[in-house]
Amino acid sequence: MTKGKQSTQLLLGPTPAALIACGDGNEQNIITLAWVGVVNSSPPMVSISVRPNRHSYDMIRKTGEFTVNIALAEQVDVVDGCGTISGRNLEKFEHFNLTAAAGTLSYAPMIRECPISMECELKHSLELESHTVFIGQVVSSYVEGDILNEKGSIDFERCSLLGFCSGNYLKTAPLNLKLGYTLKK
Ligand SMILES: Cc1cc2nc3c(=O)[nH]c(=O)nc-3n(C[C@H](O)[C@H](O)[C@H](O)COP(=O)(O)O)c2cc1C
Asked: What is the pLDDT of residue 158?
């Protein structure tokens, strides 16, 4: 084995570099998060891990709502921008020419320009040392028709989604192998 020991243990990736949108009735905001995951299937639930000093934190906590919006690789400028400037100093929807799209939630908008959006209702919070893990139930999800194949699944030949690992942005590329393909060999 030639693997060398690393100083960081957080080598779990790639993850999405997702745009999380929130609002509180007075303002709407977007925060980029890489610490995002799927945590339950029925009901469908996702986790997001947010530092308490983020401007988005109180909005999510108070309203119990957020949306997870998955960006295309070509939207990396927006994702990096939303992850390096705080909504305390910038109205991000306006600055990045993004459209807040209303869905079924009362406060958190979706981002129309992202090809995938999930509306989430906060169900659990776990306060860890540096971050709080918010677990949200996905109450509705939307996919841009242009990236779907005839069977209604995401066609990764038609889109490259944005990912993140070890401080670097990545993009998806299909292997064209389906789950369970080895059973058919
Ligand atoms: C690629 C990327 C991933 C990030 N992931 C996280 C994360 O998982 N959790 C977090 O609290 N902040 C994360 N950040 C930092 C926030 O996005 C950043 O501090 C942002 O400006 C906070 O916005 P807000 O103050 O408007 O809420 C990430 C930033 C980038 C660029």
From this structure: 95
Place of tokens 């999405």: 16
In the reported structure, the alpha carbon of residue 46 is separated from the centroid of ligand 1 by a whole-number distance in angstroms of 17
Do 67 and 109 contact (CB within 8 A), yes or no? yes
Residue nearest to atom 15 of ligand 1 (CA): 83
pLDDT the model gives residue 10: 82
Q: Do 115 and 70 contact (CB within 8 A), yes or no?
A: yes
Compute the distance between CA of residue 70 and CA of residue 153 in angstroms, rounded to an integer. Answer: 15
Contact (Cβ atoms closer than 8 angstroms) between residue 28 and residue 65: no
CA dist., res. 105 & res. 69, Å (int):
14
User: Does the CB atom of residue 86 touch ligand 1 within 6 A?
Assistant: yes
- Average pLDDT (162-180) is 95
Q: Which CATH number fits domain 15-184: 2.30.110.10, 2.40.30.20, 3.40.50.1450, 2.60.40.1180?
A: 2.30.110.10
pTM over 0.85: yes
Look over the chain and give the mean of its residue pLDDT values, rounded to a whole number. 96
pLDDT at position 5, please? 86
